[in-house]
Specification:
alpha/beta; Rossmann fold; 10 strands
Length: 392
């Protein structure tokens, strides 16, 4: 355990050497005192996402509390410690793993005099950097506005209503102008995305009538989804090794044996994905929800504990999306790497679902990819008729 913590902390010395990035302090309020492992995965994910967003994490602050404090999330004494670190290490932004309330975020910014964001904000920043199509940008904007609305509402109330002389004063007009403009934009985006969603569902219905099954690729970010997509489709989509390079679903028509089908590369998963982000991206996630089969890519080169955690996270998200387990093929990817406990990992993956179909493979060496394709053909036949999207 000590070695694991030491390796984790040593990562910051490497980050501090990065030049030209915004220095960031990472914060975490741990409310489960018995958690000695999962919080490290959460922090590791957060650091990876922060780097992808262009930040340079130089230190971390962790506080164990029974629950987050109402005003700051952290305790008052810890806030003083954080302020000292910010001054000493010239921190530009404080990134908190916990999703902050508007009050907590505003209070922290006022107390620390720097920008404060949480993992929700950070995730959307990476989305924005990688978005290259209108649909992705619209979904990101909606997710951001839903999050920022109570924060901006609180700021506007303090700015415009704090010293107003009475009902319908100029401050009240300004307040309602700010709040109203955000609400109108949210409603407009929701209408536009719902219209696009209805069109997408209609397209899915038409494809089903033509007898073309749809296979989705899903998995934790960095597991190798896009690499497998490239092999199956013979395309060359970029594999950058950073989180969330795939935001909008990418379709490609291929032939598996005598059968034509559509392969879809979808957005990567991450632990602690906020339900509001999932709701904003429901149009993209429909590609998973209404697919005939699903290839869940698991990185088996991770340690057993990390692989367990990430596999369970993915299956939990798929369950929330209503995906039946008998439609899932698990692609145990990266077997070409040093994985001495591979058999143990495969047995564990088999224990996670009732009807396990596990295909060990490597997107790098292409070992097992043919078997994966053959298994997909067998899987989609029973489901191609039973998974029609709702009639429009």
């Amino acid at each position: 355990m000590r070695r694991r913590k030491a390796r984790f902390i040593s990562m910051f010395s490497e980050f501090s050497l990065v030049i030209g990035r915004v220095n960031a302090l990472i914060g975490y309020v741990k409310t489960n005192p018995h958690d000695h492992f999962k919080y490290l995965i959460h922090l590791d994910d957060l650091i990876g996402i922060a780097r992808a967003a262009g930040y340079n994490p130089v230190d971390t602050v962790i506080q164990v509390l029974p629950k987050e404090t109402v005003n700051y999330a952290f305790g008052y004494g810890k806030i003083d410690e954080i302020a000292n670190i910010i001054r000493e290490k010239r921190i530009n932004v404080f990134i908190v793993y916990n999703v902050l309330s508007s009050t907590q975020q505003l209070n922290l910014e006022r107390r620390l005099s720097i920008r404060v964001i949480d993992r929700y904000d950070l995730t959307l920043e990476v989305f924005e950097r990688n978005a290259n199509d209108v649909l992705s940008k619209m979904q990101i904007e909606l997710a951001r506005l839903v999050k920022v609305f109570p924060y901006e509402k609180l700021k506007a109330s303090i700015r415009y209503l704090g010293n107003r002389p009475g009902y319908s004063a100029s401050g009240e007009y300004a307040y309602h102008s700010v709040v109203g403009s955000i609400k109108r934009r949210i409603k407009k985006l929701q209408r536009e995305l719902e219209w696009r969603r209805l069109i997408r569902l209609k397209q899915l219905e038409e494809r089903r009538k033509l007898g073309i099954p749809i296979i989705s690729l899903a998995g934790y970010y960095g597991a190798g989804k896009t690499s497998i997509f490239n092999i199956l489709t013979r395309l060359n989509r970029p594999v950058l090794g950073i989180p969330f390079t795939t935001l909008s679903s990418k379709y490609s028509s291929i032939k598996l044996g005598r059968n034509k089908c559509l392969i879809v590369d979808t957005i990567g998963f991450v632990a602690g994905l906020d339900p509001r982000v999932i709701d904003a991206f429901k149009l993209t996630l429909d590609d998973i929800r209404f697919s005939d089969g699903l290839i869940l890519v698991i990185d088996v080169s991770d340690s057993l504990q990390i692989m367990e955690f990430r596999a369970k996270t993915c299956l939990s998200i798929l369950k929330d999306l209503g995906i039946s387990e008998d439609k899932i093929i698990i692609a145990a990817n990266k077997i070409d790497k040093n994985t001495p406990d591979l058999n143990l990992k495969i047995k564990y993956l088999e224990s996670l679902i009732d009807t396990p179909v596990i295909i060990p493979c490597s997107a790098h060496t292409k070992i097992g990819i043919n078997k994966l394709a053959e298994t997909v053909i067998k899987l989609v036949k029973p489901h191609s008729e039973s998974n029609m999207p709702p009639t429009i």
